[in-house]
Amino acid sequence: MAKLTLYHASPSRSSIVRWMLEETGEPYDLHLLKLAEGEQMKPDYLAVNPMGKVPALKHGDTVVTEAAAICTYLADEFPHARLNVPVGDPRRGVYLKWLFFGPSCVEPAITDRAFPRAEQPRRGMLGYGDFDTVMDVVAKAAEKGPYLMGEQFTAADVVIGSGLRWGIMFNLLPKRAEFVDYVERLEKRPALQRATALDQQLAAA
């Protein structure tokens, strides 16, 4: 039995972590949850993640929740995969910025655009500021490429790339060349192809 267990449902944010796990090359087990049947709200799973959502990752006796946190954890825990920027490297600050930028800026900006509020909030009340600025910041970084940290693919690309893939898939992002080209580069990664194929098999079943 693998030491890593992913509490997973497809499609959901836990697919981000499945991609990350495939990038590490480490063996892992799946604990599948049927969200439509409310399994994520049952006591057994709430003991794992009291928020009642996926993903959650169990590594030995350690439980980590929140997709970006799990990706950060895995990158640091398995440095042989070179998915992190280690402590002491001056690039780590930028790397961490992108890991936090995904859930705190990219995802809420896309979600607010998809589901507009009845009354537009003041820019200062939104943690991400405004949609156009978020898009410009990501586009500028993606354009430099091939990855957010230059030549090195990292967990930050898993987090940001997943958000952009989702936004493009559901037509929630502008079709900017920077986004399309960046996502096309990510789609060529064998780990993402494996994770996508495995999730498609789950959906078919």
> How many structural domains does the protein architecture include?
2
* Secondary structural class: alpha+beta
* H/E element order: EHEHEEHHHHHH
Count of alpha and pi helical runs: 8
Low-confidence stretches: none
Q: Give the CATH architecture of the largest domain.
A: Up-down Bundle
Largest beta sheet, briefly? 4 strands, mixed
CATH topology of the largest domain: Glutathione S-transferase Yfyf (Class Pi), Chain A, domain 2
Give, in spatial order, the strands making up the sheet with the most strands.
Answer: 2-1-3-4
Q: How far is the N terminus from the C terminus?
A: 23 Å
Number of strands: 4
Percent in helix: 40-55%
What value does the average pLDDT take? 95
CATH class of the largest domain: Mainly Alpha
Structure description:
The protein has about 200 residues and is of the alpha+beta class. It folds into 2 domains: about 5-80, Glutaredoxin; about 90-190, Glutathione S-transferase Yfyf (Class Pi), Chain A, domain 2 (Up-down Bundle), CATH 1.20.1050. Helices cover about 50% and strands about 10% of the residues. The chain has 8 helices and 4 strands; from the N terminus they run βαβαββαααααα. It has helices at about 15-25, 45, 65-75, 90-115, 130-145, 155-170, 175-185, 190-205; strands at about 5-10, 30, 55-60, 60-65. Strands 2-1-3-4 form a 4-stranded mixed β-sheet, with helices on one face. β1 (about 5-10), α1 and β2 (about 30) form a beta-alpha-beta unit. The chain is globular and about 40 Å long. The relative contact order is 0.13.
